[in-house]
Amino acid sequence: MAAVSKVFVARLVGLAVLGPDGESIGRVRDVVVAIRTSGQQPRALGLAVELTTRRRIFVPMLRVTSIEPQAVTLNTGTVSLRRLHLRPGEALAIGQILDSRVQVDDPDLPDLAGVDVTVIDLGIERTRTRDWVVSRVAVRTGRKGLRRRGETHVVQWEQVRGLTPSALDLPGQGVARALMQFEKMRAADVANALRELPPKRRDEIAAALDDERLADVLQELPPDDQTELLNHLGRDRAVDVLEAMDPDDAADLLGELPDAEAESLLESMDPEESEPVRRLLTHSPDTAGGLMTSEPIIVTASTTVAETLARVRNPDVPPAAASLVFVVRPPTATPTGKYLGCAHLQALLREPPANIVGGILDTDLSHLSPEDSLESVTRYFATYNLVCGPVVDEEGHLLGAVSVDDLLDELLPRDWRETEPEDESPQDAVSGSGTSAGAGA
Q1: How many whole angstroms separate alpha carbon 437 and alpha carbon 190?
Q2: Do residues 94 and 178 lie in contact, with contact meaning Cβ atoms separated by under 8 Å?
Q3: For position 429, what pLDDT does the model report?
Q4: What is the pLDDT of residue 124?
Q5: Cα separation, 270 vs 71, whole angstroms
Q6: What CA–CA distance (Å, rounded) separates 53 from 421?
Q7: Rounded CA gap, 37 and 31, in Å?
Q8: Domains by residue range for the chain, with CATH
Q9: Which whole-number Å values give the CA distances from 434 to 429, 430, 431, 441, in the listed order?
Q10: Distance between terminal CA atoms of the chain?
Q11: Where is this region: Disordered (predicted)?
Q12: What is the per-residue pLDDT across 155-174, written as a single tens digit (0 to 9) for each?
């Protein structure tokens, strides 16, 4: 099919981005727009493209050769791999502009005069100078009577009032479209996307997420971003989110705060939620006790294989933590009764469902002590080819378990989520698009 010179930005989301030889570069996730204070048509500066590594980069519109129904083709296969950053005056069409409230001054639509409507899409088109500008705006009115949704209208940009840089900084803009995009994304990918948004929109989205989802996302942010976002939530919401976090991640986050502030939040938490966090905070963060989670999968020896596998199948349990089930004498809450051994997932899968876990215990696998250093934990995983290991105290009580993802978080540089691998830096320098969207303007 023929390439197009006019398109609505929502139609671009998800399209493959191809080089001139058809090689895949990534997929379109948003369009970067420069909002002008003069009221002139905003320029579409470029595309926010998501690579297979989930990183989002900026590709200038000048690199776009054609936009077709199934793909966007570039005039080069070499692009800058630097992470997308927005400059002042720039905005993400999907992430910031859509769902904004505006007014329409169109003589053909007198019923809309003075009425707030919602932006649901932006139409961009290519000019004779090869620039792309926002020429049309799709808006939707509020519901009337028994209608499930309001009426949709497409108007010229010049007839829209309220889409200005200052208006986009006002609180209360809708975030429904962004939440819809994030709905099926992994928490780590949502965290990366939030880091690319301006603080205002990031805080709005965080406020709109439910406690459990926000807790999962918060756990994937760098420490500085975690504390900043937590401070913007307000005390009551911050406490709710901390209670929804895994105890080890909550302890890591509270460990970044001043002692008085951390203690105040702990006192506001439910005692059942704060107690395991307090225990974890007694350990140094660079030891097995500081790395462990206090909520691994724990059963008694009389638990059936079927019941144990049902616990393993819980989608909230990370794959590494699901690889080992720990068997103890009651009580099963940490610190538990006497630690008896562990059951490997592969062994559970080979057993009849009615058998009990006590019959397939691995009692020979050594365990970690809470004081073990990072090096000791690393050697332990390498020696026994494990991705999860028990932490047991001197009295033989199971305190928790360390998983390989917690170990990697501690071994990697503190800012590993914010920096790019060194082997990508040479290709970063190939492109002249710069480090931000504005460089492509």
Answers
A1: 20
A2: yes
A3: 37
A4: 96
A5: 51
A6: 12
A7: 19
A8: 1-142 (2.30.30.240), 176-282 (1.25.60.10), 298-411 (3.10.580.10)
A9: 9, 10, 7, 10
A10: 29
A11: 415-441
A12: 999 999 988 877 776 554 55
